[in-house]
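Technical annex B. To support the medicinal chemistry partners, we prepared a structural model of the target in complex with zinc ion, based solely on the information shown next.
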Amino acid sequence: MSTHHHEHDHDACRRYLSSLSDYADGTLSDDLCRELEAHMATCENCRIVVNTLSKTISLYHQLPEPEMPNAVKERLYKVLNLDSYSAAPGDSDSA
Ligand SMILES: [Zn+2]
């Protein structure tokens, strides 16, 4: 019933998040690649992020702007349930 079949520490995901884009872009160092792959072996969230990033990167390599779309960033943060991203609309408790 729970989507979390593992007790997973998302602090690790936060740490890896900045490396994920480099990993997907193929610019991450070998050491970090191995570290990240070891983490991804047990973390479906990060696998999804890398998979999404890979698609995004192959897309934006064909586009003039090298920026990752905000929608993608927002999605990544949502995947990892990060609370540091607060630009999601309709998520405030105003009223
Ligand atoms: Zn992770």
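Notes passed to the chemistry partners:
Residues 12-13, 16, 39, 43, 45-46 surround zinc ion (CB under 6 Å).
The chain has one domain: 10-79.
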